[in-house]
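quick one, two chains, predict together pls
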Amino acid sequence: MSQSLLYNVLIPVTKAVVCFLVVALVAGVLTLIERRVLAALQIRKGPNRVGWNGALQWLADVVKLITKEDHVPSKAEKVVHLLAPLLVMAPALTVFAVLPFGPDFSVTLPWIGKVTTPVHAAADVNVALLLLLAVSSIGVYGIILGGWGSNSKYALVGGLRSAAQLISYEVPMGFAVVAAILMANSLSLVAIIEAQRKAGVWFVFPGLIAFFCYFVSGVAETNRIPFDLPEAESELVAGFHTEYSGFRWAIFFLSEYANMIVISTVATTLFFGGWLRPFPNVAWLGFLDVVPPMAWLLLKVCLFLFVYIWFRGTFPRYRFDQLMALGWKALLPISLGNLVLVAFAALWGAAGLRVLGAVLTVAFAGGLLWARLRPARPRGTTSMAGRPAEVRV
Amino acid sequence: MESYLPILYFAAVGAVFPIAILVVMALVRPKRPNPAKLAPYECGVAAPTDAWDHRFSVRYYLIAVLFVVFDVETVFLFPWAVVYDKLLLFGFVEMAVFLYILVLGYVYVWKRGALSWA
């Protein structure tokens, strides 16, 4: 077998197939974990009948989805209705090509010989970040076409809302990402991780505000609570996927989880050092290297996924005008101002960023402490009741 | 260009993956349509018109136009950020001027009420 065929075709295709199977599996298991964590947050039990303590619930759900009828509404635009889920899923999976999962690694296969893959990212291209933002926003088309093609009022309004929401939050997300690029001076995700190794600390310290903007926009981009407006049950039934059933509905659902994994991985890569251990240059922390790099990455990604579920158990849903106001009137100026701040600090190079990181960290810790120590509200009053009367909600 | 090839494979497999699932599932699942099942979701009365006959708020268009403006600004920022360590003060001042113009437009749009939904 020729080497070029192996490196240029077989390995990437194998990576793609393995990657997608893993994503599908993780998405399935994540639904179970999500339900159990939500149940724990709400002091109830959650699914605990199928398998050992409910461990096989997700498999039962998959079987149910497979055997469910998949119908196309009689008045729908049939082709659009059929293609929309694919348009959502294909970009969500394509971006996995540029996500770096670990450093160089090589294996010796029995009949091929030594195989080295440059990085665990299938494609380490120098515009990875730009490509990621561009490709993942193609999913908007699938959502709006799915809503429009269904020929149902709820689906139409859901699709429109979703499109407005996704494009609105892409702007602050872009500004937040630019702040990270500014610190690393590269668009390549691998180079951004290496820049964090060189800087000695994760970019989350100088990029605290950027990280905050990125993650909030990321939650909005994935249509997750508290930003799940497109599928707000109480007003829109199920939003853009009202008219979908069976496995085509499941494809929307899988894409949502794939997007959550992408957002978590990118947040980890840009701000939490990707596969690096904490403080990669501090020698006495060297014992942390027993954990392999990829495990560090997975650990951080799992933490972010947990935060997603935690959000779902904690925050009430925004109203649509509040959602738009948050995106355009709060996140946009904050992320833009932060960009100027980071650029100003970067004028002094790494030293400037270190000072900025220290200042932001102290300010953040101080803020937390103040929130903790300020006089508590009288017991038994909710935060709503404690508000001044002129604030109408 | 060769380093971009895997992305193409990922896109191809990403498109084939859901299609393959759907084709396989089509062999398993039941197909027993009836008119009531295929009607679009409504309150119980059949919808008199198509959903796309309804009008919706012009603000959706406005948001889309604003998005294009701001997203193009973001795209300008990307290459600037990559070479910022070489431009330094020159880059900072130049981008400050650029952002100043952007912010002027932003303030104008805000004052005109284009950003408030209600």
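Chain B touches chain A through 70 residues (CB under 8 Å).
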